[in-house]
Specification:
heterodimer, A: mainly alpha, 7 helices, B: two-stranded antiparallel sheet, 28 helices, 6 strands
Chain lengths: 223, 696
């Protein structure tokens, strides 16, 4: 197979990255847990797509296929499956009212997007693959963080953490062209797996102990 | 391995040593269920490795500069910008020699010593930690990249922590481990900052901040080009960082707590080698990297050394825990080593490279010697502890009759550490005196007063050290047993005895033939000071230890021994002439008319050091408590309870208030700990946002 035309690849990457951003913003306003999980799977799928395009369009980036594969298996199928099972098991499908309401969160996230793009602007000349990837990555990071702060359920926070990680991965894959060394990527993946497992367990325990998933009740544990 | 070019036998041997440590450690861990097998693999591997290490080091030192090994990578680390570069240069080789010789003796000793742990403890784990510590220490001496060095430094500290807390069921041990942990990390923090300063400077010179700018090669190229601000800051940071590990007063408080509680083979390793990594680091950084030093560096080092020497030995004198006594005496000896290094720095400043090389040799030779006799003494103490299950000297006594060979080895070590001729401690302290005394003429400024003052203090230290080891040997081995276990003690096993014998032989050899070894220092001074061995140092065909000048002082330890042997017949002749008419009658020791001598009548460890406790009362501030109960008059007490305790001034005046302050502050900081995840996330988020906006 001949490599893709770089211009064409770049446009696809821009499109997919924008898609990721849109999905992220949807997650900010969405309160159904299961839908949120599906949105996250969609976002991860787009990330995997970006990785595939990079691997395909560059001669020396064969190991990025690994990244794509891992993302696909881990974040598109396995983690969403694990989280949905958790949701069904604890039978709690709605997020309780977030700290900020939907419209205010949306406005704030708009501000974050602006900030992300401003921060990324000096580096746009570096981003040879798609001209918005760093901006999107920073925005994903910031909004993901905001999502963590804004929501109260441990499960949503896990989800938000995963989107933050998607942002980091996007920056790593797209900016450095060949991605980080495979060791580092594998490390991040396993980190994440473990984090999700532990958090999943924690969610279950919190639920059992406090018969609620509200992390603000954790303050009772404080010594 | 990895297809690296191994151009020299020494590099090859070094790799063999490293792999043997790895194999020994892993093997003994795998075989942990079977004590004997684990011992055999663990300590056998270490024995093999130390043999390779000794040969590698001697090959490097003897054949320098033909043996100038290139730096080579041990393997790919898999982590970007962390090359695992090692290089066997003379300074590193010298310290590898120390660690390997010691590892040899300790491993042989361990075959016997760990038998006491069979069935009670995980011997495989002990073997694994032991090998890991040796591996990390050896690598610390040859690593030639700051990042790699720091990682090894941490591994070394962590394995040492594991060894210190090996007998973790006692709270004393756990506390000592935690104290060691905290102090060690304080030191590593300073080291990281110091290396970052050098890294920054090297990066500016090179024009990029890649992996090259924290290789030792580029630090070496820095030299005098460092601006004075960062240079002095780096000096202070390195002094604290390496000083913690070396146990310089006032950073020493972990040492007397941590060394005694480890298993004895490990405490010998900690006191013999691990504190020397601090000396290695200081030598490496100050002499290899930082160019010509300002005068105050040398003065600081010399003063701190003097302080450590005097205070170390004074506190050692007050101890009645045998291993704690040895640990305090390590502080004293580190002080003596530092005096040599400090004097060398001052000579470098005043442009007297020959004297500097003499002082440096004095310091490093004492490093080697201290490794030998301190390890020997710790092994002796370990043998005693093995037999008696106590470290308290008040429960010992009379062991010379029950453990004669251990006693002999301990005596040799005690003579050596008290710097009595003809053993090795004497030689290096003599060299230190020589360099200090000649220092007076090197400079016109008043700073020169430092030299005779510290010389006098060194003399005081020597005398006190002799008193201290008279106490250590006398109370432990002489007179009557003070407890039931002491009366029933049995001689140590052959393996333990041969380990001690090796070290004792080393002490005698280093004392009798210093000139044979001092030629090995040539490459070292050449590398660090650009100065060959002082010309008159080896005189009289190697039988006399000379000086930097032709008419300087000389000493010959073989000569002293020879004179002693020649004088031996004199008393015999005198006895033949005058003594034949006297009759010898053996009777009981006079007991003041009481019925028979009991162990209670002899000097106790506390009693022996009483005069010095009184003389130095201002320093020790002993706390005494006495309670007596009597019926008629206080002179006829029915029961008497006496308690005397000494707490270190540094602990009570410096560390305890500091601890209280820190705890207070952290209690106030707990307001931040709201207990809600959201709050914590907001902290992080706001910081992130601020940093981003600040970066704009």
């Amino acid at each position: 197979m001949k490599p893709l035309n770089p211009e064409f690849a770049s446009q696809w990457i821009t499109l997919l990255a924008t898609g990721m951003l849109v999905v992220q913003l949807l997650m900010v306003v969405q309160r159904m847990l299961l839908t949120n999980i599906r949105l996250f799977a969609l976002q991860s799928l787009m990330l995997a797509g970006i990785a595939v395009i990079i691997a395909f369009s560059h001669a020396h980036a064969a190991h990025v296929y690994w990244v794509a594969g891992l993302t696909l298996v881990g974040k598109v199928f396995f983690l969403p499956w694990l989280l949905s099972r958790q949701v069904r098991r604890i039978q709690m499908e709605h997020e309780i009212a977030p700290l900020l309401n939907a419209s205010a969160s949306m406005l704030l996230c708009g501000a974050f997007t602006l900030l992300g793009y401003i921060v990324a602007r000096p580096f746009t000349s570096l981003a040879r693959l798609g001209n918005n990837t760093l901006g999107v990555a920073v925005t994903l990071l910031l909004t993901g963080f905001f999502l963590m702060v804004n929501r109260r359920k441990a499960l949503t926070q896990v989800l938000a953490l995963l989107t933050v990680e998607n942002g980091v991965m996007l920056a790593a894959v797209a900016l450095t062209t060949y991605g980080m060394p495979l060791v580092v990527e594998l490390g991040i993946f396993f980190d994440l797996m473990v984090a999700v497992m532990v958090l999943g367990l924690l969610v279950y325990r919190i639920r059992e102990t406090f018969s609620s998933m509200d992390v603000s009740k954790l303050s009772q544990l404080k010594g | 391995m990895n297809g690296n070019v191994i151009d020299l036998p020494s590099s090859f041997l070094l790799q063999c040593a490293l792999w043997a440590y790895v194999a020994g450690g892993l093997g003994s861990l795998i075989a942990w269920r079977r004590d004997r097998l684990a011992t055999l693999i663990g300590f056998g591997g270490a024995t093999l490795a130390s043999g390779c290490g000794i040969s590698a080091a001697i090959l490097t030192l003897a054949a320098w500069p033909a043996s100038a090994g290139k730096a080579f990578a041990l393997g790919a680390s898999g982590v970007p910008s962390l090359p695992l570069i090692v290089q066997l240069d003379p300074l590193g080789a010298f310290f590898v020699l120390i660690v390997s010789v010691l590892a040899l003796a300790l491993s042989v000793y361990s075959f016997g010593y760990v038998r006491g742990y069979y069935g009670r403890r995980n011997v495989g784990l002990l073997g694994a930690f032991y090998n890991a510590l040796l591996l990390a220490t050896t690598l610390v001496f040859v690593a030639s990249n700051a990042l790699f060095f720091l990682i090894l430094w941490e591994i070394m500290a962590l394995t040492a922590y594991c060894l210190v807390s090996f007998e973790h069921e006692r709270p004393e041990t756990r506390n000592a481990g935690v104290l060691f942990f905290i102090m060690s990390h304080l030191g590593t923090g300073c080291l990281i900052l110091g290396f970052l300063l050098l890294f920054q400077a090297a990066g500016q010179v090179l024009g990029n901040y890649g992996p090259d700018s924290y290789s030792f090669e580029s630090f070496r190229a820095l030299g005098n080009s460092l601006p004075p601000g960062p240079r002095n800051a780096a000096f202070l940071l390195f002094l604290v960082g390496f000083g913690v590990k070396a146990g310089i007063v006032p950073l020493h408080i972990w040492l007397p707590a941590a060394h005694p509680v480890a298993p004895s083979n490990a405490s010998a390793l900690l006191s013999g080698v691990m504190i020397k990594t601090g000396i290695y680091g200081l030598t490496r950084v100050l002499f290899d990297f930082m160019g010509t030093p300002p005068n105050w560096w040398g003065v600081t080092l010399l003063t701190l050394g003097t302080l450590s020497a005097v205070l170390g030995v004074l506190y050692a004198l007050m101890e009645h825990d045998l291993k704690r006594l040895l640990a305090y005496s390590s502080i004293e000896n580190i002080g003596i080593i530092l005096m040599g290094l400090g004097a060398a720095l001052m000579f470098l400043h005043t442009q007297h490279p020959v004297l500097a090389s003499l002082a440096l040799i004095a310091g490093l030779y004492h490093t080697l010697n201290h490794a030998f006799f301190k390890a020997l003494l710790f092994l002796g103490a370990g043998a005693v502890q093995h037999a008696l299950h106590t470290r308290n000297m008040e429960e010992m006594g009379g062991l010379i009759k029950r453990m004669p060979q251990t006693a002999f080895c301990f005596l040799l070590g005690a003579v050596a550490i008290s710097a009595l001729p003809p053993l090795n401690g004497f030689v290096s302290e003599w060299l230190t005196y020589q360099s200090l005394l000649q220092g007076f003429g090197t400079t016109g400024s008043l700073v020169k007063l430092v030299f005779p003052l510290s010389g006098a203090m060194l003399a005081l230290t020597g005398a006190l050290a002799a008193a201290c080891f008279v106490k250590a040997f006398g109370i432990t081995f002489l007179a009557q047993p003070r407890s039931e276990p002491a009366a029933q003690a049995r001689e140590a096993s052959p393996a333990m005895l041969s380990g001690m014998g090796l070290l004792a032989a080393g002490c005698v050899f280093l004392g009798l033939f210093p000139t044979a070894l001092i030629t090995l220092f040539g490459p070292l001074t050449q590398q660090l000071l650009g100065q060959p061995l002082p010309g008159y140092l080896v005189a009289g065909h190697g039988w006399i230890l000379g000086n930097t000048q032709e008419l300087g002082g000389t000493v010959s330890t073989p000569g002293i021994v020879l004179a002693g042997i020649c004088l031996l017949p004199v008393p015999l002749v005198l006895w033949l002439f005058f003594g034949r008419r006297t009759r010898v009658r053996i009777g009981p020791t006079w007991d003041c008319g009481l019925r028979g001598l009991t162990p209670h009548m002899q000097y106790s460890a506390t009693g022996f050091s009483k005069p010095l406790r009184v003389i130095f009362k201002a320093l020790f501030r002993p706390r005494r408590e006495m309670q007596r109960e009597y019926d008629y008059s206080p002179y006829f007490a029915t029961t008497l309870r006496f308690e005397s305790r000494i707490e270190e001034a540094f602990v009570t005046r410096l560390y305890r208030p500091l601890k209280r302050r820190i705890l207070l502050t952290s209690r106030r900081m707990r307001a931040l700990q709201a207990g809600s995840i959201q709050a914590y996330l907001i902290y992080i988020f706001v910081t992130l946002l601020l940093l981003l906006i600040f970066a704009l």
